[in-house]
Amino acid sequence: MSDPSAVMRTLRAIQLLNDALDRMHSDLTGLMKMNASDLKALRMLAIREQQQRDVSPHELAEHLGVSTAAVTTLIDRLAAQGFAERHPHPRDGRSRILVLTPKARAHFFQHFGGHLSTMRELMEPMDSTDLHTIAGFLETLATRLSSEQRESDPT
Protein backbone atom coordinates (compact mmCIF):
# COMPACT_ATOMS: atom_id res chain seq x y z
CA MET A 1 0.00 0.00 0.00
CA SER A 2 1.35 3.40 -0.98
CA ASP A 3 2.03 6.08 1.57
CA PRO A 4 -0.62 8.84 1.09
CA SER A 5 2.05 11.54 1.32
CA ALA A 6 4.04 9.84 -1.46
CA VAL A 7 0.89 9.67 -3.61
CA MET A 8 0.21 13.39 -3.04
CA ARG A 9 3.83 14.27 -3.79
CA THR A 10 3.63 12.32 -7.04
CA LEU A 11 0.34 13.98 -8.02
CA ARG A 12 1.88 17.40 -7.35
CA ALA A 13 4.95 16.41 -9.38
CA ILE A 14 2.70 15.43 -12.30
CA GLN A 15 1.00 18.84 -12.07
CA LEU A 16 4.38 20.59 -12.07
CA LEU A 17 5.55 18.53 -15.05
CA ASN A 18 2.35 19.26 -16.95
CA ASP A 19 2.74 22.99 -16.25
CA ALA A 20 6.39 22.92 -17.37
CA LEU A 21 5.47 21.06 -20.56
CA ASP A 22 2.69 23.58 -21.27
CA ARG A 23 5.18 26.44 -20.92
CA MET A 24 7.74 24.61 -23.04
CA HIS A 25 5.19 24.04 -25.82
CA SER A 26 4.08 27.68 -25.63
CA ASP A 27 7.70 28.73 -26.01
CA LEU A 28 8.13 26.33 -28.95
CA THR A 29 5.16 27.79 -30.81
CA GLY A 30 6.92 31.17 -30.77
CA LEU A 31 10.33 29.79 -31.65
CA MET A 32 8.97 27.64 -34.46
CA LYS A 33 6.70 30.46 -35.65
CA MET A 34 3.54 28.36 -35.70
CA ASN A 35 0.30 28.23 -33.78
CA ALA A 36 -0.44 25.77 -30.97
CA SER A 37 -2.63 23.50 -33.11
CA ASP A 38 0.10 23.16 -35.75
CA LEU A 39 2.65 22.25 -33.08
CA LYS A 40 0.24 19.74 -31.49
CA ALA A 41 -0.30 18.18 -34.91
CA LEU A 42 3.44 17.85 -35.55
CA ARG A 43 3.96 16.40 -32.07
CA MET A 44 1.20 13.85 -32.64
CA LEU A 45 2.66 12.87 -36.02
CA ALA A 46 6.13 12.48 -34.47
CA ILE A 47 4.84 10.30 -31.63
CA ARG A 48 2.75 8.12 -33.95
CA GLU A 49 5.76 7.78 -36.26
CA GLN A 50 7.83 6.48 -33.32
CA GLN A 51 5.00 4.05 -32.57
CA GLN A 52 4.94 3.05 -36.27
CA ARG A 53 1.28 4.04 -36.49
CA ASP A 54 -0.36 5.75 -39.45
CA VAL A 55 -2.33 8.95 -38.90
CA SER A 56 -5.36 9.84 -40.98
CA PRO A 57 -6.72 13.37 -41.26
CA HIS A 58 -9.79 12.17 -39.34
CA GLU A 59 -7.62 10.88 -36.46
CA LEU A 60 -5.75 14.18 -36.37
CA ALA A 61 -9.04 16.10 -36.22
CA GLU A 62 -10.21 13.93 -33.32
CA HIS A 63 -6.90 14.35 -31.51
CA LEU A 64 -7.02 18.13 -31.84
CA GLY A 65 -10.76 18.36 -31.17
CA VAL A 66 -11.46 20.23 -34.40
CA SER A 67 -13.67 19.65 -37.42
CA THR A 68 -12.42 17.85 -40.52
CA ALA A 69 -12.70 21.16 -42.40
CA ALA A 70 -10.45 22.86 -39.85
CA VAL A 71 -7.93 20.02 -39.96
CA THR A 72 -7.87 20.19 -43.76
CA THR A 73 -6.83 23.84 -43.50
CA LEU A 74 -4.22 22.93 -40.88
CA ILE A 75 -2.81 20.13 -43.06
CA ASP A 76 -2.72 22.45 -46.08
CA ARG A 77 -0.75 24.96 -44.00
CA LEU A 78 1.73 22.32 -42.75
CA ALA A 79 2.14 20.97 -46.28
CA ALA A 80 2.73 24.48 -47.69
CA GLN A 81 5.43 25.01 -45.05
CA GLY A 82 7.04 21.69 -45.98
CA PHE A 83 6.36 20.05 -42.57
CA ALA A 84 3.84 17.36 -43.56
CA GLU A 85 2.81 15.39 -46.62
CA ARG A 86 -0.28 13.44 -47.57
CA HIS A 87 0.50 9.91 -48.73
CA PRO A 88 -1.80 7.15 -49.95
CA HIS A 89 -2.86 4.83 -47.12
CA PRO A 90 -0.78 1.64 -47.40
CA ARG A 91 -3.82 -0.65 -47.01
CA ASP A 92 -6.67 1.52 -48.31
CA GLY A 93 -5.82 3.34 -51.51
CA ARG A 94 -8.91 5.55 -51.23
CA SER A 95 -7.75 7.25 -48.04
CA ARG A 96 -4.70 9.27 -47.07
CA ILE A 97 -2.25 9.31 -44.19
CA LEU A 98 -0.16 12.19 -42.93
CA VAL A 99 3.62 11.93 -42.78
CA LEU A 100 6.24 14.22 -41.26
CA THR A 101 8.89 15.50 -43.63
CA PRO A 102 12.63 15.48 -42.90
CA LYS A 103 12.33 19.28 -42.71
CA ALA A 104 9.77 18.97 -39.89
CA ARG A 105 11.98 16.55 -37.95
CA ALA A 106 15.01 18.83 -38.34
CA HIS A 107 13.04 21.98 -37.45
CA PHE A 108 11.46 20.30 -34.42
CA PHE A 109 14.81 18.93 -33.19
CA GLN A 110 16.50 22.30 -33.70
CA HIS A 111 14.07 23.87 -31.24
CA PHE A 112 13.44 20.87 -28.96
CA GLY A 113 16.99 19.47 -28.83
CA GLY A 114 18.00 21.51 -25.78
CA HIS A 115 15.04 20.16 -23.82
CA LEU A 116 15.95 16.61 -24.83
CA SER A 117 19.52 17.18 -23.65
CA THR A 118 18.27 18.42 -20.28
CA MET A 119 16.06 15.35 -19.90
CA ARG A 120 18.92 13.01 -20.82
CA GLU A 121 21.25 14.75 -18.33
CA LEU A 122 18.79 14.13 -15.53
CA MET A 123 18.33 10.49 -16.50
CA GLU A 124 21.98 9.60 -17.14
CA PRO A 125 23.00 9.06 -13.49
CA MET A 126 19.81 7.13 -12.67
CA ASP A 127 19.62 3.39 -12.26
CA SER A 128 18.11 1.52 -15.24
CA THR A 129 15.62 -0.26 -13.00
CA ASP A 130 14.35 3.09 -11.69
CA LEU A 131 14.12 4.48 -15.22
CA HIS A 132 12.12 1.45 -16.38
CA THR A 133 9.79 1.90 -13.40
CA ILE A 134 9.30 5.59 -14.17
CA ALA A 135 8.79 4.88 -17.90
CA GLY A 136 6.27 2.13 -17.14
CA PHE A 137 4.34 4.42 -14.81
CA LEU A 138 4.27 7.28 -17.33
CA GLU A 139 3.25 4.98 -20.21
CA THR A 140 0.43 3.46 -18.14
CA LEU A 141 -0.70 6.88 -16.93
CA ALA A 142 -0.77 8.24 -20.50
CA THR A 143 -2.69 5.21 -21.77
CA ARG A 144 -5.23 5.32 -18.94
CA LEU A 145 -5.80 9.07 -19.25
CA SER A 146 -6.22 8.75 -23.03
CA SER A 147 -8.69 5.89 -22.56
CA GLU A 148 -10.70 7.83 -19.99
CA GLN A 149 -10.87 10.84 -22.28
CA ARG A 150 -12.16 8.73 -25.17
CA GLU A 151 -14.76 7.08 -22.90
CA SER A 152 -16.03 10.44 -21.60
CA ASP A 153 -16.21 12.00 -25.08
CA PRO A 154 -19.90 12.47 -25.92
CA THR A 155 -19.36 12.08 -29.71
TrEMBL record:
Name all HTH marR-type domain ranges.
Answer: 7-143
- InterPro entries attached here? HTH_MarR-typ, MarR/SlyA-like, WH-like_DNA-bd_sf, WH_DNA-bd_sf
Q: Which Pfam families match?
A: MarR_2
PROSITE patterns associated with the record:
HTH_MARR_2
Return the SMART domains for the record: HTH_MARR
Q: Which PANTHER family does this UniProt record tie to the protein?
A: TRANSCRIPTIONAL REGULATOR, MARR FAMILY, TRANSCRIPTIONAL REGULATORY PROTEIN
- This chain belongs to the protein called MarR family transcriptional regulator
Q: What is the lineage of its organism?
A: Bacteria, Bacillati, Actinomycetota, Actinomycetes, Micrococcales
